[in-house]
Specification:
The chain is an alpha+beta fold. Helices cover 40% and strands 25% of the residues.
Length: 81
C-alpha cells in the first residue's frame, strides 16, 4: 500500500512543476489513476511521458506498493483544451 501523498512526492521529485491528481481506483491503495500536468512534457511523445512517470515510480512499482497505474499526462496547454 502507498498513499496518494507519497505517490505525488515521488512524481514531484522528478517533475517539480507537476500538478498531480490521484484517484484510488479500488480502495486498496495499490491501483491508481493519475493525471500529471507539466510543462516538462512539451515536445515529448506519449510513450516518453509514460516512461518518465513509470521511472519516477519505479521503487514502489517494484516492491509491490503499486500494482496498477492508469496515467494521463498532459502539458498545461493540452489540459486547457
Amino acid at each position: 500500500m502507498i498513499s496518494k501523498e507519497v505517490i505525488a512526492h515521488y512524481i514531484k521529485q522528478a517533475i517539480p512543476d507537476a500538478e498531480v491528481a490521484i484517484v484510488d481506483k479500488t480502495g486498496t491503495m495499490d491501483h491508481y489513476r493519475l493525471q500529471v500536468i507539466s510543462q516538462k512534457f512539451q515536445g515529448m511523445s506519449l510513450l516518453d511521458r509514460q516512461r518518465l512517470i513509470y521511472e519516477t515510480l519505479n521503487v514502489p512499482m517494484k516492491d509491490g506498493r503499486i500494482h496498477a497505474l492508469e496515467i494521463r499526462s498532459q502539458t498545461p496547454q493540452e489540459a486547457e483544451q
